[in-house]
Amino acid sequence: MNYTIRITWYFYKSLIIWCLLVSFFAIYYVFEGELNIALAFIVKIFGYASALGVRYLNYNSSKTNFYFRNAGYSINRLYVYTFGFDFLIFIILISLSTIR
Amino acid sequence: MEPLILKTDSVLLEFDGRKILQDVYLECKQGEVVGILGRNGCGKSSLLRIIFGTLTPSYKHVSISGEYIKKGYKNMRVAYLPQHNYLPKGIKIKNLAMNIIDDRFSNDLAAHPIYRDYHEKTIAELSGGELRQLEILLVIYSKADFILLDEPFTHISPIQAEALKIIIKKCAQIKGIILTDHQYYNILDVSDRIILITNGYTRPIKHKDDLVTYGYLSHIN
């Protein structure tokens, strides 16, 4: 399990800036009352779609897929783990932001 | 324990209706090095990627000791060295290695000058040649049962190539290794068997003269 967490973390590092930017963008507008929670989730889902594009367009990131495959993991599986973990963080942060 | 046998059979790979690979049979058992030779664009790298599972042909049958393998990399059965750099940036080399190195080779890796000198650093601090050597080592010493090396002798110096051949031979005592490179003399030197890919077909090479017969070499030195 530790092995999977470590590999997922290395994979997540290539997306973390983008994922957090989208999260903070959505949370900020929820906090300001300009976005409801449902819309924030939709923004986050679009963020994941764009993250796929960001990583695909980043030449070095797509080349590093071979490292993760050599570690025994499919890239789709790592996306599921990464987005799952990121979404969990997002839910925690957005819950905290709505406590007033 | 019986050595595992990797078999690749009936591969059909087409691009725009042109058959790149059409009658391929490749076998490699643990304990041997199989060298693949062929002209540019004949499908050598494609064949390795098909075995690894990152290229999907029209048809293929890949198995390890009779067990069908859809994607070689799953469960770390097969490791692959691509032609390009592949290690992620911003992670300490020792952490990159920790995830994939076979315990039986951890001392060999630790004793290698590249790893010994740089394991606490990230790949950004390596030169191009050093990075390539490290990438090769991380694949060769990986936990996989079979190792695929795509142009391992390119981008390294002759003396490093000699050292690499010793590492490959040692690793091949317990793993199966399939490799390809345009530096055919290194392939001939390190391989137990040679397969030539020509016109989409694999042909076992029994004697160096066969490479001239099939038009891969103009003459033998």
TrEMBL record, chain A:
Lineage: Bacteria, Pseudomonadati, Bacteroidota, Sphingobacteriia, Sphingobacteriales
Membrane-spanning segments: 12-31, 37-57, 78-99
Name of the protein in its database record: Uncharacterized protein
Domain of life of the source: Bacteria
Record's keyword terms, sorted: Membrane, Transmembrane, Transmembrane helix
UniProtKB/TrEMBL annotation, chain B:
PROSITE patterns, per the entry: ABC_TRANSPORTER_2
Protein keywords: ATP-binding, Nucleotide-binding, Transport
Domain ABC transporter: 6-220
SMART domains (UniProt xref): AAA
InterPro entries: AAA+_ATPase (IPR003593), ABC_transporter-like_ATP-bd (IPR003439), Metal_Ion_Import_ABC (IPR050153), P-loop_NTPase (IPR027417)
Molecular function GO labels: ATP binding
Gene3D superfamilies referenced in this protein's UniProt entry, alphabetically: P-loop containing nucleotide triphosphate hydrolases
Protein name: ATP-binding cassette domain-containing protein
Family: Belongs to the ABC transporter superfamily.
